[in-house]
Amino acid sequence: MLSEVLLVSAPGKVILHGEHAVVHGKVALAVALNLRTFLRLQPHSSGKVDLSLPNIGIKRSWDVARLQLLDTSFLEQGDVTAPTPEQVEKLKEVAGLPDDCAVTKRLAVLTFLYLYLSIFRKQRTLPSLDVVVWSELPPGAGLGSSAAYSVCLAAALLTVCEEIPNPLKDGEHINRWTKEDLELINKWAFQGERVIHGNPSGVDNAVSTWGGALRYQQGKIASLKRPPALQILLTNTRVPRSTKALVAGVRNRLLKFPEIVAPLLTSIDAISLECERVLGEMGEAPALEQYHVLEELIDMNQHHLNALGVGHASLDQLCQVTRAHGLHSKLTGAGGGGCGITLLKPGLEQPEVEATKQALTSCGFDCWETSVGAPGVSVHSATSLESRVRQALDGL
Ligand code: PMV
Fold first, then answer.
1. Index of the ligand 1 atom closest to the CA of residue 241
2. Domains of the chain, CATH where assigned
3. Which positions fall inside the GHMP kinase C-terminal domain (predicted)?
4. 3-state helix, strand, coil in the chain (%, to 5)
5. How does DSSP classify residue 3?
6. 204 is catalytic
7. Is the CB of 143 under 6 A from ligand 1?
8. Long-range contacts from 217-223, C-beta under 8 angstroms, 24+ separation
C-alpha cells in the first residue's frame, strides 16, 4: 500500500457531432473537455475512511474496522464485476445515509463505497484514507461529471493499493498511466458509472480515461489518432432538459416522417465522418481553411438538430450571439436547452473572445473558455504548482 498523497485529475466530455444520430446506430465524436475533476487521496492511520465532496456538500466518515467486519462476499463475483441492484441495496445499508438524502449525493457515496470495497477486497486489511473530490464541471449538464468522478476514484484507488504503479517520477509535475493501466482504470470506472446510471454506454468514462477524441458507434469505441486541441467556448444555457424525453421525441419524428428524418440522420453521420477526417489531417499545424470546414460542419449539424426537434430558443440565441461575433456554435448533448459549443479559431483577438463571453453571460448563460481534445486521467505531484490545481486546493 502506498503511503504518499495522490493527486489525480480527469476531464469531462462534450459531443462534437453525432448526438441523437448515435442512438440510431450512427457515428458520434466525443472529445475530452478541459474542465476537470480533481481528487486528493491521503493514506493515514486514523482507522477511518473519510470522503469529502465539497461541490455537493458531502462529508462522510466510516470506521475501517466496521467496514472490515462486513460480509462483502456480495462483491466477489470474478474480476471486474458489474454492480447488481441487490449489491447496490446492500451498499445503501453500509453507507448509512439519511432517507431524505438527495439522489446525486446518494449515488456519489454509493459509487465511492462500491469502488473502495471492490478494489480493496483482495487486501487483507482495508486502508484508512482521506479522499477529497472536487470539480470544475457543473453536475447534470451532460458534460460527463459522474464519469470523471468514477475515473478519478478508480485511478487513485488502484494506484494506492499498487494494483497499478504511480507513473509520476521524482521531480515531475504531471504524468499519465500506461495503456494497460488505463484499460484497468477504464474498466473499473465503467462499473462506477453503472452504479450511477444503471446502463451507460461507456463513452463518457472512455473519454475521461483516454482523453483526446473518440469515435463511438454501436458500442464500439476507438481513439482518434493525434486529434488537435481545439479552443472552444462552452456555454450552459441553464435551461433544464430531459435527455430521455428528447431521445423519445426524435424516435417519434423518425417513425412519423421516416423519409424525411432518416436522411437527416444519414447526413449527421456524414458530418461526423467528415469532421473525423479533418481532425485527423489537422495535426500539429492546422490551417485556417480546416477551421472553416469545421465551422461549416457545425452550422449544418445545428440545422439538422433543429430539424430533429431538439433545438431550443436559448440555443438559437446562443448561435445568434456568437454569429454576431463571427463565431459558429451548435448544441452539444441532448439539446432542448443544456449546453452549446462555439469554435474559437486561431488568431482570434482576446478582446473579441471576452466580448463574446460577456454577451453570452448577459443572456443569463454560464460560459467557459476551455479546450477539447484534452489529456485523459493524469496524476499530478502533490506540491504541483499548476495554478488551477493550486486554486482548487486553496478553495477547499
Ligand atoms: O445529455 P448528454 O450529453 O449525455 O447527451 C445525450 C446524447 C444523446 O445522443 C442525445 C443520447 C445518447 O444516449 O447518446
1. 1
2. 6-225+378-394 (3.30.230.10), 230-372 (3.30.70.890)
3. 294-349
4. 45, 20, 35
5. -
6. yes
7. no
8. 217/22, 217/25, 217/26, 217/27, 217/28, 218/25
E strands, the chain, are: 6-17, 28-44, 48-53, 58-63, 128-135, 174-175, 213-217, 220-223, 230-236, 329-332, 339-343, 366-372, 378-380
83 CA from centroid of ligand 1 (Å)? 22
The candidate with the shortest Cα–Cα distance to 106, out of 60, 47, 158, is 60
Predicted TM-score (pTM) of the model is 0.92
Residues counted in the chain: 396
Of all protein residues, the one whose alpha carbon is nearest to atom 13 of ligand 1 is: 23
Q: Tell the residue nearest (CA) to atom 4 of ligand 1.
A: 142
What the block records as the C-alpha cell of 125 is 486489511
Please tell me the distance from the alpha carbon of residue 291 to that of residue 345, in angstroms, as a whole number: 7
Q: Lowest-confidence range among 117-126, 276-285, 375-384?
A: 117-126
- Active site annotation includes 272: no
Under the banding of pLDDT at 50, 70 and 90, the label for residue 182 is: very high
Residues in a beta bridge with 354: none
Q: Is the dihedral of CA 90, 93, 96, 97 positive or negative?
A: positive
Q: What is the pLDDT confidence band of residue 125, given thresholds at 50, 70 and 90?
A: confident
Query: Catalytic: which of 9, 135, 146, 384?
Result: 146
Structural contact between residues 196 and 107, judged by C-beta atoms closer than 8 angstroms: yes
Q: Is 333 in the pocket of ligand 1 (CB under 6 A)?
A: yes
142 lines ligand 1 (CB under 6 A): yes
Catalytic residue among 128, 181, 204, 378: 204
